[in-house]
Amino acid sequence: MTPRQNRNRDRAGRGIPEATVARLPVYLRALHALQERGVATVSSEELASAAGVNSAKLRKDLSHLGSYGTRGVGYEVEYLVYQISRELGLTQDWAVAIIGVGNLGRALAGYGGFASRGFRVAGLLDADEALVGQEIAGRTVRHIDRLEDVIASGRVSIAVIATPAHAAQKVCDRVVAAGVTSVLNFAPVVLSVPEGVDVRKVDLSIELQILAFHEQRKAGGPGDRRLSGEGPPGPAQYVETVEAG
Questions:
Q1: Which of 62, 73, 60 has its CA nearest to residue 27?
Q2: Which of 54, 168, 221, 245 could form a disulfide with 216 if both were Cys (CB 3.0 to 4.6 A apart)?
């Protein structure tokens, strides 16, 4: 069993819900901001507000870590940072390989937040001969043919895929075959992976489309009128389907 599978088993044994795990990085980001301002303690209400959740949910989430705060005082910021960082595995050194160093990959390679959060960029790879050998953020771009060597020599734990859509699945198959079980996918495609491999997808275009939907509704645009029965007539079954859903 891999270290990551052991962590997942231990987490399940402690009964930490995946929804809570997903919120922990948000709490950690808020806590880091408090640290930068020199704040030593924070109430659950203040931290919840900074994280965009209600205080009851935050207290329940943190209780899974064994952190309950002190009545009338709140949470010690530095210790809570340590608790969450330890739970997320950020007290260890995680090697990351970025595959695809176009505009997005180049930006990711130069992101300073990786090192401060326990992530080390161990390799940059691309199939473009014009990019191979270039120095980006102090690292040399290697040819994609050396992917397996870079993963092995750099002890890569996480692969970041920032390739064009048509190349993403093949790259994913190779990193998984090389032993990587965590993938962060920026390519606009759904990746197929075997059981035991975790994939997180980041699709900026989808997020923008969701924001456009909400902007349209706030402005009383076509989407809002259509769902409320106003605007140009459309198939009756469309409205019925929406209402039934």
A1: 62
A2: 221
User: What pLDDT, on the 0 to 100 scale, is given for residue 25?
Assistant: 93
In angstroms, rounded to a whole number, what is the distance separating the alpha carbons of residues 83 and 108? 27
DSSP class of 74: B
Task: Tell me the two tokens of residue 203.
Answer: 């699709």
Could you tell me which residues come within 8 angstroms of residue 142 by beta carbon, excluding any fewer than 6 positions away?
A: 123, 124, 125, 132, 150
Q: What is the pLDDT of residues 27-41, one digit of tens each?
A: 999 999 999 999 999
Q: Which domains are delineated in the chain?
A: 3-88 (1.10.10.10), 94-202 (3.40.50.720), 205-244 (no CATH)
Phi and psi angles of residue 101, each rounded to the nearest 5 degrees, phi first: -120, 50
E strand or H helix that includes residue 4: helix 3-14
Please state the residue numbers annotated as binding site. 100-105
What is the number of alpha carbons within 13 Å of residue 133 lying toward its C-beta?
2
Decide: 176 and 199 in contact? Cβ < 8 Å: no
> Which tens digit of pLDDT belongs to each residue from 47-72?
999 999 999 999 999 999 987 778 87
Residue 183 one-letter amino acid: V
Task: Let me know: does 162 contact 104? Beta carbons within 8 Å.
Answer: yes
Cα–Cα distance measured from residue 164 to residue 28, given in angstroms and rounded to the nearest whole number: 32
CB 216 within 8 A of CB 223: yes
Strand spans (E) along 41-144: 41-42, 75-76, 94-99, 119-126, 135-136, 139-143
- Two structure tokens written together for 67: 């952190």
Round to the nearest angstrom and report the end-to-end CA distance of the chain. Answer: 42
Q: Which residues are annotated as a binding site for NAD(+)?
A: 100-105
Q: What is the residue type of 245?
A: G
**CA–CA distance, 230 with 223 (Å, rounded to integer):** 10
